[in-house]
Amino acid sequence: LASDRLRTMKRHEAQRSFFGLLRTGFPQVSGVLSFGKPAVLLAEGPLVELQRLVIE
Length: 56
Prior knowledge:
- The protein is α+β, with helices and mostly antiparallel strands.
- It has one domain.
- The chain has helices at about 1-15, 20-25, 45-55; strands spanning about 30-35, 40-45.
């Protein structure tokens, strides 16, 4: 039962989009995201949150 739940959680994380990660994982960060070539992310927010985003 626990292994099924872990598998479901991993599958959900694999299906989450980058945009979804930004919205749910970094709610204090705002900005503009362009998926062109090259892709660009212009973000603003608390420094600690921005550093966490860069590491992610």
